[in-house]
Design a protein that fits this description.
Blueprint lengths: L2 E12 L2 E12 L3 E5 L6 H9 L6 E6 L2 E2 L5 H6 L2 E4 L11 H8 L6 H14 L1 H5 L10 H13 L5 E5 L7 H16 L3 E6 L2 H7 L2 E6 L2 E7 H4 L3 H7 L4
Parallel strand pairs: 3-8, 3-9, 6-7, 7-8
Antiparallel strand pairs: 1-2, 1-4, 4-5, 9-10
């Protein structure tokens, strides 16, 4: 299979704290890969390393066969690796439509931008209804939809999602995960960082479990979902 993204022996430190201790992660083209683990396991650091927001001390990150670990965040974005950050980080004082427009700043083709609006409004009809509304007045679930929609406006080849279900009601979580699956089925490779392991494993193809900066488990999602140790640790024993 074609590897969309490869993390090879990646080490990242913050001062004396080793956040990632030589992790290996392989993401196949067109798949949903989940990164699970408790708070402080290194999940967000992994995403930030891929996005170029955090520099690795050693190891490599490759997109297909190109090393991207030394590129600036803007160059990485231009290659089609787009992140929807934890905590949404929308622009609260701008309208829904203006937030989406900012997401498309790397896309030069007007027809492509138009098509991206159409597909975002297709996934999230509520955003179309509220396109003139100030983003800060949206509900938590709508803001999360906007954060994902804004990432989609950049025509991602690889979509990085950081805790998309955080703080949302169960019904909305279900909706968000269904839409992530749809986005993937249309050809976008997805790397999703989540605490909601059960919902994530239901839609993922493959999963890695991080513990204090190391990969403690990995395997097909439909195998890991049956793993008693994993279920006790992350799924509350259900």
């Amino acid at each position: 299979m074609n590897k969309a993204l490869t993390l090879d022996k990646l080490h990242v430190s913050y001062g004396n704290i080793k956040a990632l201790k030589g992790i290996d992660i392989h993401i196949e083209e067109g798949k949903i890969v989940a990164l699970l683990g408790a708070n402080g396991a290194g999940k967000t650091t992994t995403l930030k390393s891929i996005s170029g927001l955090v520099q690795a001390q050693s190891g490599h990150i490759k997109m297909h066969d190109d090393t991207i670990s030394n590129l600036s965040p803007s160059k990485i974005t231009q290659k089609g690796i787009i992140q929807s950050p934890e905590g949404r980080q929308i622009f609260p004082e701008l309208t829904v439509e203006e937030n989406l427009k900012i997401g498309a700043f790397t896309v030069k083709n007007k027809q492509e931008i138009k098509a991206n609006y159409k597909s975002v409004y297709g996934y999230f009809p509520v955003l179309k209804e509220r396109k003139k509304q100030i983003a800060g007045t949206l509900s938590g679930g709508e803001q999360q939809m906007l954060a994902i929609g804004r990432a989609l406006m950049a025509s991602p080849k690889i979509l990085l999602l950081d805790e998309p279900s955080l703080g949302l009601a169960p019904l909305i979580v279900k909706d968000i995960f269904r839409i992530i699956k749809e986005i993937n089925e249309k050809g976008t490779t997805v790397l999703i960082v989540e605490q909601n392991a059960l919902q994530t494993l239901k839609i993922a193809d493959y999963a890695y479990v991080l513990e204090v900066g190391e990969v403690s488990m990995e395997g097909p999602a439909n195998t890991l979902i049956k793993d008693k140790k994993l279920i006790d640790a992350y799924l509350g024993g259900h």
